[in-house]
UniProtKB/TrEMBL annotation, chains A, B:
SMART domains: BRLZ (SM00338)
Coiled coil: 139-180
Protein's recorded name: CCAAT/enhancer binding protein (C/EBP) 1
Similarity comment: family membership: Belongs to the bZIP family. C/EBP subfamily.
Record SUPFAM superfamilies: Leucine zipper domain
UniProt KW Coiled coil keyword: yes
Sample GO molecular function, one term: RNA polymerase II cis-regulatory region sequence-specific DNA binding
Family matches, as InterPro entries: bZIP, bZIP_sf, C/EBP
Pfam families noted in UniProt: bZIP_2
CDD domains noted in UniProt: bZIP_CEBP (cd14693)
Biological process, per Gene Ontology: DNA-templated transcription; myeloid cell differentiation
Entry keyword set: Coiled coil
DNA sequence: TCAGATTGCGCAATCG
DNA sequence: TCGATTGCGCAATCTG
């Protein structure tokens, strides 16, 4: 059921020793043919692409537009996770490749916090459950946000129409008054009323 | 950005998300009931809740609001879907109930699509892969839609401010004209003499 | 009945 | 370290 992608050992190592992708991963994931589409995505570190996707509205649009037309095409097999039991293909092979010999050496000890991460462990289940709760919470939040935005757009549109109508009324009234004024000579010579025409 | 363009875009958007006006009202804060909140969700059939969630924006808001406080808590076991192999509880029993005798009768043959559904089968993998593609496509679409909605809301807000300013200008101009007219007798006072203020 | 489209969910990676 | 986000796959369901 669970599609574990990267072997847990490597996962531990990866999360424990975050290596700047741009420095250690001269990825160049062989942008040949079928894998090039994902390769583009990989050229951006997660933080970079995430920043584009989240904060920068325009940026998000740009990146999205680039991916939009192709992102739902089947992933290249090399980018897909292999079977749950089979050997895992790393998403960022370059990073791990360089150091896995060392980190997988017998002298290397995983940090204490990572030791108990086994799919069978209670620790793992606890973490998973906590994350699942966080995910549900986050998605609820997102749904509410989207809904509020939609409602706000609708309200703004309605208000917009009302304002347009109001402008039409005011304009017409203004025209009427201007017409009346144009028909009424300035006169006022009676008491020297200086009806200054300010308009 | 011209009004018409924004409006048309909004119209298009609104038509794809028809939200009854009354549902836009602020959601009622969910009557306090600890267990009733999830239960209420269950009382809605999938199609009903789906209709609310899709078409009725406000409805989704209501339902979501009710669940919001609890939805990210761990699901009760009874709320989880049964195992893939286990007997499925129909979400819309009313519909199928009426006909299940027929469809489950010996003379009824399970459709070909159901026969070959094994996780090992190529048919299964084919379907999964197609669905994965569809999912990616659908989510891309949703992302774009959300982005467009956000952008439209911003545009409408800006346009609204401009309209407000315009209304202020027109109102002031109107007041000025009215003032002028009030100061100016109804013309021809020389021979008419009846200078009645018409405004 | 069928195939694509949606949607809720869990997992893993990553962010903050 | 831990909750919050996000992309993804799965399964159930909807839709035309």
């Amino acid at each position: 059921m669970s599609d574990s992608r990267v072997s847990s050992v490597i996962q531990e190592w990866a999360s424990s020793y975050p290596v700047p992708a741009q420095t250690l991963a001269p990825p160049t994931p062989a942008p040949s043919g079928s894998t090039s589409q994902l390769a583009q995505m990989d050229l951006l570190s997660y933080s970079q692409s995430a920043a584009l996707l989240r904060g920068g509205g325009g940026g998000e649009d740009r990146v999205s537009e680039q991916m939009m037309g192709l992102s739902y095409l089947p992933y290249a097999a090399s980018c897909l996770s292999s079977g749950p039991g089979g050997p895992q293909t790393l998403t960022r092979p370059c990073v791990f490749f360089c150091f896995q010999d060392f980190f997988l050496s017998p002298t290397f000890r995983a940090p204490a916090t990572k030791r108990s991460i086994t799919k069978d462990s209670a620790e793992y289940r606890l973490r998973r459950e906590r994350n699942n709760i966080a995910v549900r919470k986050s998605r609820d939040k997102a749904r509410r946000r989207i809904l509020l935005t939609q409602q706000r757009a609708l309200q703004l549109q309605e208000e917009n129409q009302k304002l347009q109508i109001r402008i039409g009324q005011l304009t017409q009234e203004l025209d009427t008054l201007k017409h009346i004024l144009s028909q009424r000579p300035l006169q006022g010579p009676v008491e020297g009323g200086s009806a200054g025409s300010s308009i």
